[in-house]
TrEMBL record:
<feature type="domain" description="Orotidine 5'-phosphate decarboxylase">
    <location>
        <begin position="16"/>
        <end position="254"/>
    </location>
</feature>
<dbReference type="InterPro" id="IPR013785">
    <property type="entry name" value="Aldolase_TIM"/>
</dbReference>
<protein>
    <recommendedName>
        <fullName>Orotidine-5'-phosphate decarboxylase</fullName>
        <ecNumber>4.1.1.23</ecNumber>
    </recommendedName>
</protein>
<keyword id="KW-0456">Lyase</keyword>
<dbReference type="InterPro" id="IPR011060">
    <property type="entry name" value="RibuloseP-bd_barrel"/>
</dbReference>
<comment type="pathway">
    <text>Pyrimidine metabolism; UMP biosynthesis via de novo pathway; UMP from orotate: step 2/2.</text>
</comment>
<dbReference type="GO" id="GO:0004590">
    <property type="term" value="F:orotidine-5'-phosphate decarboxylase activity"/>
</dbReference>
<dbReference type="InterPro" id="IPR001754">
    <property type="entry name" value="OMPdeCOase_dom"/>
</dbReference>
<dbReference type="InterPro" id="IPR011995">
    <property type="entry name" value="OMPdecase_type-2"/>
</dbReference>
<dbReference type="GO" id="GO:0006207">
    <property type="term" value="P:'de novo' pyrimidine nucleobase biosynthetic process"/>
</dbReference>
<keyword id="KW-0665">Pyrimidine biosynthesis</keyword>
<keyword id="KW-0210">Decarboxylase</keyword>
<dbReference type="Pfam" id="PF00215">
    <property type="entry name" value="OMPdecase"/>
</dbReference>
<comment type="similarity">
    <text>Belongs to the OMP decarboxylase family. Type 2 subfamily.</text>
</comment>
<dbReference type="GO" id="GO:0044205">
    <property type="term" value="P:'de novo' UMP biosynthetic process"/>
</dbReference>
Amino acid sequence: MTTKELVEQIRKKQSFLCIGLDTNLDKIPSHLLDGPDPIFAFNKAIIEATQHLAVAYKPNVAFYEAYGLEGWQALQKTIEYLNKNYPEIYTIADAKRGDIGNTSARYAKTFFSDLSFDSVTVAPYMGEDSVVPFLEFENKHTILLALTSNRGAFDFQTQIVNGSALYKKVIQTSQTWKNHRNLMYVVGATKAEYFKEIREIAPNNFLLVPGIGAQGGNLQEVCKYGLNENVGLLINSSRSIIYASAEANFADAAAKKAGELQQQMASILEKHEF
Ligand SMILES: O=c1ccn([C@@H]2O[C@H](COP(=O)(O)O)[C@@H](O)[C@H]2O)c(=O)[nH]1
Protein backbone atom coordinates (compact mmCIF):
# COMPACT_ATOMS: atom_id res chain seq x y z
CA MET A 1 0.00 0.00 0.00
CA THR A 2 1.32 3.48 -0.81
CA THR A 3 1.56 6.25 1.79
CA LYS A 4 -1.10 8.15 -0.19
CA GLU A 5 -3.53 5.23 0.09
CA LEU A 6 -2.85 4.98 3.82
CA VAL A 7 -3.60 8.69 4.27
CA GLU A 8 -6.86 8.27 2.32
CA GLN A 9 -7.94 5.53 4.74
CA ILE A 10 -7.10 7.72 7.73
CA ARG A 11 -9.23 10.49 6.26
CA LYS A 12 -12.10 8.13 5.49
CA LYS A 13 -12.17 6.38 8.86
CA GLN A 14 -11.11 9.42 10.90
CA SER A 15 -8.75 7.06 12.62
CA PHE A 16 -5.03 6.46 12.81
CA LEU A 17 -5.40 3.46 15.07
CA CYS A 18 -3.29 0.33 14.64
CA ILE A 19 -4.43 -2.71 16.58
CA GLY A 20 -1.69 -5.03 17.77
CA LEU A 21 -2.44 -8.74 17.37
CA ASP A 22 -0.20 -10.06 20.16
CA THR A 23 -2.17 -13.25 20.48
CA ASN A 24 -1.34 -15.39 23.49
CA LEU A 25 -3.17 -18.67 24.13
CA ASP A 26 -2.93 -18.06 27.87
CA LYS A 27 -4.99 -14.91 27.53
CA ILE A 28 -7.67 -15.66 24.95
CA PRO A 29 -11.16 -16.83 25.99
CA SER A 30 -11.03 -20.50 26.96
CA HIS A 31 -13.91 -21.56 24.71
CA LEU A 32 -11.72 -20.82 21.66
CA LEU A 33 -9.16 -23.39 22.79
CA ASP A 34 -11.60 -26.20 21.96
CA GLY A 35 -11.66 -25.22 18.26
CA PRO A 36 -9.16 -26.26 15.56
CA ASP A 37 -7.21 -22.99 15.23
CA PRO A 38 -7.66 -20.82 18.31
CA ILE A 39 -5.07 -18.15 17.36
CA PHE A 40 -6.66 -17.49 13.99
CA ALA A 41 -10.20 -17.74 15.41
CA PHE A 42 -9.32 -15.07 17.98
CA ASN A 43 -7.65 -12.78 15.42
CA LYS A 44 -10.54 -13.14 12.97
CA ALA A 45 -13.11 -12.25 15.62
CA ILE A 46 -11.07 -9.21 16.76
CA ILE A 47 -10.56 -8.03 13.17
CA GLU A 48 -14.24 -8.46 12.23
CA ALA A 49 -15.33 -6.49 15.28
CA THR A 50 -12.82 -3.63 14.91
CA GLN A 51 -11.96 -3.25 11.21
CA HIS A 52 -14.19 -0.17 10.79
CA LEU A 53 -12.31 1.59 13.61
CA ALA A 54 -8.68 0.85 12.70
CA VAL A 55 -6.53 1.61 9.66
CA ALA A 56 -3.84 -0.95 10.50
CA TYR A 57 -3.15 -4.24 12.25
CA LYS A 58 0.21 -5.23 13.65
CA PRO A 59 0.78 -8.88 14.51
CA ASN A 60 3.91 -9.14 16.61
CA VAL A 61 5.69 -12.10 15.03
CA ALA A 62 7.16 -13.27 18.36
CA PHE A 63 3.70 -14.28 19.55
CA TYR A 64 3.32 -16.59 16.53
CA GLU A 65 6.85 -17.98 16.44
CA ALA A 66 6.39 -19.00 20.08
CA TYR A 67 3.89 -21.65 18.88
CA GLY A 68 6.16 -23.13 16.20
CA LEU A 69 4.69 -24.28 12.91
CA GLU A 70 1.12 -23.88 14.19
CA GLY A 71 1.83 -20.28 15.16
CA TRP A 72 3.46 -19.46 11.83
CA GLN A 73 0.47 -20.95 10.00
CA ALA A 74 -1.87 -18.82 12.12
CA LEU A 75 0.16 -15.72 11.17
CA GLN A 76 -0.09 -16.69 7.51
CA LYS A 77 -3.85 -17.25 7.77
CA THR A 78 -4.27 -13.91 9.55
CA ILE A 79 -2.44 -11.88 6.89
CA GLU A 80 -4.22 -13.77 4.08
CA TYR A 81 -7.56 -13.09 5.77
CA LEU A 82 -6.76 -9.38 6.09
CA ASN A 83 -5.49 -9.01 2.53
CA LYS A 84 -8.43 -10.90 1.04
CA ASN A 85 -11.26 -9.35 3.05
CA TYR A 86 -9.93 -5.91 3.95
CA PRO A 87 -7.37 -4.91 1.28
CA GLU A 88 -7.71 -1.27 2.34
CA ILE A 89 -6.23 -2.08 5.73
CA TYR A 90 -2.52 -1.45 6.28
CA THR A 91 -0.54 -4.36 7.71
CA ILE A 92 2.63 -4.36 9.79
CA ALA A 93 4.77 -7.39 10.58
CA ASP A 94 6.35 -6.43 13.88
CA ALA A 95 9.36 -8.68 13.41
CA LYS A 96 12.27 -6.37 14.34
CA ARG A 97 14.57 -8.03 11.77
CA GLY A 98 17.88 -6.90 10.22
CA ASP A 99 21.09 -8.78 9.39
CA ILE A 100 23.90 -8.72 6.83
CA GLY A 101 22.60 -7.85 3.36
CA ASN A 102 21.94 -11.27 1.86
CA THR A 103 20.15 -12.41 5.03
CA SER A 104 18.07 -9.23 5.23
CA ALA A 105 17.06 -9.87 1.63
CA ARG A 106 15.57 -13.22 2.73
CA TYR A 107 13.69 -11.57 5.60
CA ALA A 108 12.35 -8.96 3.19
CA LYS A 109 11.21 -11.66 0.76
CA THR A 110 9.42 -13.51 3.58
CA PHE A 111 7.45 -10.55 4.91
CA PHE A 112 6.91 -8.56 1.70
CA SER A 113 6.67 -11.14 -1.11
CA ASP A 114 5.56 -14.38 0.57
CA LEU A 115 3.33 -13.04 3.35
CA SER A 116 2.43 -9.77 1.56
CA PHE A 117 2.65 -7.46 4.55
CA ASP A 118 2.72 -3.75 3.74
CA SER A 119 5.53 -3.10 6.18
CA VAL A 120 7.98 -4.70 8.56
CA THR A 121 9.80 -3.39 11.62
CA VAL A 122 13.58 -3.47 11.33
CA ALA A 123 16.35 -2.93 13.88
CA PRO A 124 18.91 -0.39 12.52
CA TYR A 125 21.89 -1.49 14.61
CA MET A 126 23.66 -3.28 11.73
CA GLY A 127 23.47 -0.23 9.48
CA GLU A 128 22.74 0.64 5.88
CA ASP A 129 23.43 -2.67 4.13
CA SER A 130 21.16 -4.44 6.63
CA VAL A 131 18.23 -2.11 5.87
CA VAL A 132 18.49 -1.37 2.14
CA PRO A 133 17.29 -4.88 1.07
CA PHE A 134 13.97 -4.02 2.75
CA LEU A 135 13.85 -0.52 1.23
CA GLU A 136 14.20 -1.94 -2.28
CA PHE A 137 10.61 -3.20 -2.26
CA GLU A 138 8.27 -0.78 -3.99
CA ASN A 139 5.11 0.33 -2.16
CA LYS A 140 6.31 -1.35 1.03
CA HIS A 141 7.47 0.43 4.15
CA THR A 142 10.45 -0.36 6.36
CA ILE A 143 9.78 0.79 9.91
CA LEU A 144 13.08 1.44 11.69
CA LEU A 145 13.30 1.28 15.46
CA ALA A 146 14.32 4.82 16.44
CA LEU A 147 13.25 5.63 20.03
CA THR A 148 11.46 2.66 21.53
CA SER A 149 8.81 2.71 24.25
CA ASN A 150 10.67 0.61 26.81
CA ARG A 151 12.89 1.74 29.68
CA GLY A 152 15.95 0.23 27.95
CA ALA A 153 15.65 2.90 25.23
CA PHE A 154 17.78 5.05 27.54
CA ASP A 155 20.61 2.48 27.57
CA PHE A 156 21.74 3.23 24.01
CA GLN A 157 19.21 5.17 21.95
CA THR A 158 19.41 8.47 23.85
CA GLN A 159 23.17 8.27 24.43
CA ILE A 160 25.17 11.06 22.83
CA VAL A 161 27.54 9.86 20.12
CA ASN A 162 29.70 12.50 18.43
CA GLY A 163 27.44 15.26 19.71
CA SER A 164 24.07 13.77 18.81
CA ALA A 165 21.69 11.28 20.41
CA LEU A 166 21.98 7.87 18.77
CA TYR A 167 18.26 7.72 17.88
CA LYS A 168 18.65 11.03 16.02
CA LYS A 169 21.61 9.66 14.09
CA VAL A 170 19.48 6.66 13.12
CA ILE A 171 16.80 8.96 11.73
CA GLN A 172 19.14 11.45 10.04
CA THR A 173 21.55 8.92 8.53
CA SER A 174 18.80 6.64 7.28
CA GLN A 175 17.33 9.64 5.37
CA THR A 176 20.39 9.50 3.12
CA TRP A 177 19.90 5.86 2.12
CA LYS A 178 18.58 4.53 -1.18
CA ASN A 179 14.74 4.57 -1.30
CA HIS A 180 14.58 6.38 2.05
CA ARG A 181 11.06 7.54 1.16
CA ASN A 182 9.94 4.03 2.10
CA LEU A 183 10.99 4.60 5.71
CA MET A 184 8.82 4.98 8.77
CA TYR A 185 10.13 5.09 12.34
CA VAL A 186 9.08 3.52 15.63
CA VAL A 187 8.81 6.10 18.39
CA GLY A 188 7.25 5.07 21.70
CA ALA A 189 4.23 6.93 23.07
CA THR A 190 6.01 6.85 26.43
CA LYS A 191 8.57 9.25 24.94
CA ALA A 192 6.10 12.06 24.10
CA GLU A 193 8.57 14.80 25.09
CA TYR A 194 10.84 13.78 22.18
CA PHE A 195 8.29 14.17 19.37
CA LYS A 196 9.00 17.88 18.76
CA GLU A 197 12.68 17.20 18.05
CA ILE A 198 11.86 14.11 16.02
CA ARG A 199 9.47 16.06 13.79
CA GLU A 200 12.25 18.59 13.15
CA ILE A 201 14.44 15.87 11.64
CA ALA A 202 11.69 13.67 10.15
CA PRO A 203 8.89 16.06 9.21
CA ASN A 204 7.35 13.85 6.54
CA ASN A 205 7.74 10.26 7.68
CA PHE A 206 5.02 8.25 9.30
CA LEU A 207 5.80 7.28 12.89
CA LEU A 208 4.56 3.99 14.32
CA VAL A 209 3.80 4.77 17.96
CA PRO A 210 3.38 1.83 20.35
CA GLY A 211 2.75 2.40 24.04
CA ILE A 212 -0.83 3.66 24.28
CA GLY A 213 -2.89 1.54 26.66
CA ALA A 214 -0.99 -1.02 28.74
CA GLN A 215 2.25 1.03 28.71
CA GLY A 216 0.56 4.26 29.80
CA GLY A 217 1.40 6.64 26.90
CA ASN A 218 -0.81 9.68 26.36
CA LEU A 219 -2.48 10.17 22.96
CA GLN A 220 -2.93 13.96 23.27
CA GLU A 221 0.69 14.49 24.24
CA VAL A 222 1.93 12.39 21.30
CA CYS A 223 -0.32 14.24 18.86
CA LYS A 224 0.71 17.70 20.06
CA TYR A 225 3.97 17.56 18.08
CA GLY A 226 3.70 14.19 16.36
CA LEU A 227 1.01 15.04 13.81
CA ASN A 228 2.13 16.30 10.41
CA GLU A 229 0.29 17.41 7.28
CA ASN A 230 -0.51 13.78 6.40
CA VAL A 231 -1.35 12.95 10.03
CA GLY A 232 1.86 10.94 9.98
CA LEU A 233 1.06 8.76 13.00
CA LEU A 234 -0.03 5.18 13.43
CA ILE A 235 -0.90 4.74 17.08
CA ASN A 236 -0.64 1.14 18.19
CA SER A 237 -2.44 -0.44 21.09
CA SER A 238 -2.40 -4.20 21.61
CA ARG A 239 -3.25 -5.65 25.04
CA SER A 240 -5.66 -2.93 26.14
CA ILE A 241 -7.84 -3.66 23.10
CA ILE A 242 -7.54 -7.35 22.35
CA TYR A 243 -7.71 -8.47 25.99
CA ALA A 244 -10.39 -6.02 27.08
CA SER A 245 -12.37 -9.12 28.08
CA ALA A 246 -11.50 -12.80 28.37
CA GLU A 247 -15.18 -13.79 28.26
CA ALA A 248 -17.44 -14.74 25.35
CA ASN A 249 -18.01 -11.01 24.67
CA PHE A 250 -14.26 -10.42 23.98
CA ALA A 251 -14.73 -9.10 20.44
CA ASP A 252 -17.41 -6.59 21.48
CA ALA A 253 -15.25 -5.48 24.39
CA ALA A 254 -12.32 -4.99 21.99
CA ALA A 255 -14.54 -2.96 19.66
CA LYS A 256 -15.63 -0.78 22.58
CA LYS A 257 -12.01 -0.04 23.56
CA ALA A 258 -10.99 0.56 19.94
CA GLY A 259 -14.05 2.80 19.50
CA GLU A 260 -13.02 4.95 22.45
CA LEU A 261 -9.58 5.51 20.91
CA GLN A 262 -11.04 6.14 17.45
CA GLN A 263 -13.40 8.77 18.91
CA GLN A 264 -10.49 10.55 20.55
CA MET A 265 -8.62 10.44 17.23
CA ALA A 266 -11.61 11.77 15.31
CA SER A 267 -11.88 14.77 17.61
CA ILE A 268 -8.12 15.41 17.31
CA LEU A 269 -8.43 15.27 13.50
CA GLU A 270 -11.39 17.65 13.55
CA LYS A 271 -9.02 20.36 14.78
CA HIS A 272 -6.11 19.28 12.55
CA GLU A 273 -5.89 20.37 8.92
CA PHE A 274 -4.69 17.65 6.59
O1 LIG B 1 9.20 0.47 21.06
C1 LIG B 1 8.41 -0.47 20.91
C2 LIG B 1 8.42 -1.25 19.78
C3 LIG B 1 7.48 -2.24 19.67
N1 LIG B 1 6.56 -2.46 20.64
C4 LIG B 1 5.55 -3.51 20.41
O2 LIG B 1 4.26 -2.90 20.32
C5 LIG B 1 3.30 -3.69 21.01
C6 LIG B 1 2.76 -2.91 22.20
O3 LIG B 1 1.81 -3.69 22.90
P1 LIG B 1 0.89 -3.12 24.10
O4 LIG B 1 0.17 -4.31 24.58
O5 LIG B 1 -0.01 -2.08 23.52
O6 LIG B 1 1.83 -2.56 25.11
C7 LIG B 1 4.02 -4.98 21.39
O7 LIG B 1 3.88 -5.88 20.31
C8 LIG B 1 5.45 -4.55 21.50
O8 LIG B 1 6.36 -5.60 21.29
C9 LIG B 1 6.57 -1.67 21.75
O9 LIG B 1 5.75 -1.82 22.66
N2 LIG B 1 7.49 -0.70 21.86
